[in-house]
Amino acid sequence: MAEKVLVTGGAGYIGSHCVVELIEAGYQPVVVDNFSNAVKGKGDVPESIRRIEKILNTTIEFHDLDLLDRPGLEKLFEKHSFSAVMHFAGLKAVGESVEQPLRYYRVNLTASMNLLEVMQAHKVHNLVFSSSATVYGDPQHLPIDEQHPVGSCTNPYGKTKYFIEEMIKDHCKAEKDWNAVLLRYFNPIGAHNSGMIGEDPQGIPNNLLPYVAQVAVGRREYLSVFGNDYNTIDGTGVRDYIHVVDLAKGHIAALKKLKDSCGCKVYNLGTGNGYSVLQMVKAMEKASGREISYKIAPRRGGDVASCYADPQLAEKELGWKAQFDLDRMCEDLWRWQSKNPTGFTNGPAP
């Protein structure tokens, strides 16, 4: 019998790519999502999930469920025997979190507490948590390893990730039979090589690459580059971009790690390479064969000059290493964007 894994927020960008990898690795994912960052397809199933069913010629159990709905969550755990949970669900826009901090604290923290308590009540003690490099705040040294201080986050979104990490760590300390892997992502980009699923931000993209791709496809007029006076190679911000499929494979490695009764572990998922905004624009111009217009704008509050990972611990302890280079990330992103110029709202899969 295939192990059942609950995937919260499984219709979103990273969650959906993890669903693909789970199925390919022989697990049976059960997906819950509240459509806060997903598009409804036929039969009230997220379009991303519908397309995965098509790519893999399978069926996926889906529930329209908000983790704030505690009774609904209880009902789900009564119905299924899960071997583990992958927790992606949460609000995730940095800028919005600065404008609506209470909403971010209420949704992200309450959802996670509900999930942990229901897991505990139903004796499900294995968790992979989708965290973020934002927990590190302004880098005190580069590259950033897992020993880098955490908690001095520059925005409420990052603070919610930090608080949830702390909740999980404290819970694992109190409950010795719990195992959790906290994965701190750097900057996921790219898409599944089918071009059928990818990142489809609702509204104006908050992240660089979806915005660049939308400029390339003609949906946006130009890119605003926030700041060109940082102490970096060309004055623009430097980040560690990782292919979303590499990231998803990291989650499968984390799931296997839970089997070792590992307690609570923390790993960076990144490539260890930093690229500037303008280097990313050039890479996307190469992938798309189109010129990408941009304008220099003032720096954004809360942005740091450079941020890239030391991913060696994940390689050593999880046997995981990012495989895809920058060209491949941009080619896969462009395949998704050019096949789906308006994202999932195109309707049926291309």
From TrEMBL:
Look up the record and name the pathway of this protein: Carbohydrate metabolism; galactose metabolism
Give one GO molecular function term: UDP-N-acetylglucosamine 4-epimerase activity
Mark the transmembrane ranges. Answer: none
Example of a GO biological process term? galactose catabolic process via UDP-galactose, Leloir pathway
Q: Which Gene Ontology CC terms are recorded?
A: cytosol
List the catalysed reactions. Answer: UDP-alpha-D-glucose = UDP-alpha-D-galactose; UDP-N-acetyl-alpha-D-glucosamine = UDP-N-acetyl-alpha-D-galactosamine
- Please report the stretch or stretches of sequence annotated as the NAD(P)-binding domain: 6-332
| Keywords in alphabetical order | Carbohydrate metabolism, Galactose metabolism, Isomerase, NAD
Which Enzyme Commission number(s) are on file for it? Answer: 5.1.3.2
- Which cofactor(s) does the record list? NAD(+)
Q: Which domain of life is it from?
A: Eukaryota
- Main enzyme class: isomerase
Supply the InterPro entries for this chain: NAD(P)-bd_dom, NAD(P)-bd_dom_sf, UDP_G4E
Function recorded in the entry: Catalyzes two distinct but analogous reactions: the reversible epimerization of UDP-glucose to UDP-galactose and the reversible epimerization of UDP-N-acetylglucosamine to UDP-N-acetylgalactosamine. The reaction with UDP-Gal plays a critical role in the Leloir pathway of galactose catabolism in which galactose is converted to the glycolytic intermediate glucose 6-phosphate. It contributes to the catabolism of dietary galactose and enables the endogenous biosynthesis of both UDP-Gal and UDP-GalNAc when exogenous sources are limited.
Could you give the subunit structure recorded for this chain?
Homodimer.
Q: Which family does it belong to?
A: Belongs to the NAD(P)-dependent epimerase/dehydratase family.
Q: What is this protein called?
A: UDP-glucose 4-epimerase
> What species does this protein belong to?
Austrofundulus limnaeus (Annual killifish)
Q: Which gene is this protein's source?
A: gale
